[in-house]
Amino acid sequence: MSAIGATGLQLYNFGQTVSMVFFTDSWKPASFYDRIRENRSIGLHTLVLLDIKVKEQSLENMARGRKIYEPPRYMTVGQCAGQMLEIEGLKKEVGEGGVYNEESLAVGAARVGGKSERFVSGTLKQLCEADEVLGGPLHSMVLLGRRTHELESDYVREFAVDKELWDRIWKRDYEGKQ
Prior knowledge:
Blueprint: E1 18-20, H1 31-41, E2 46-50, E3 52-53, H2 59-63, E4 73-74, H3 77-93, E5 105-110, E6 118-123, H4 124-127, H5 131-134, E7 139-143, H6 150-157, H7 163-174
Parallel strand pairs: 1-2
Antiparallel strand pairs: 2-7, 3-4, 5-6, 5-7
């Protein structure tokens, strides 16, 4: 958890950590949403740990008692950002939304602490398409809090997909909000 400081974000500006699981057609848990709401309400970053499926059985194999496992799957930053935006849309439909949006700034991280670590920053919408930049697993993501210090922004901006857009959103939504 402390390795996420490699993003340039100060650890004392992080709130509660949340996990994002793979959605299915019939199961889209939003338990992470309230924790992000709490973090955002006091201006803190949220570290989002992404799901991994290793040594998982299909329901059919489990029901039949077969020890056949599915191939490993690792959630990507793109999948996470997409699922977050999907839940925000569902929450807005029932009048509970408004925690983040397509233009909320975030940082995608891959293989943090390893020799091949990579970072990319941008809007949640941009991060939906950032998997190629990040490469293989393991991924995690940080949703920026409003109390982001200018030095944190300057550091993370270096990883930005679009620096001009980053600057515009930073000035509008984050700068001076401490």
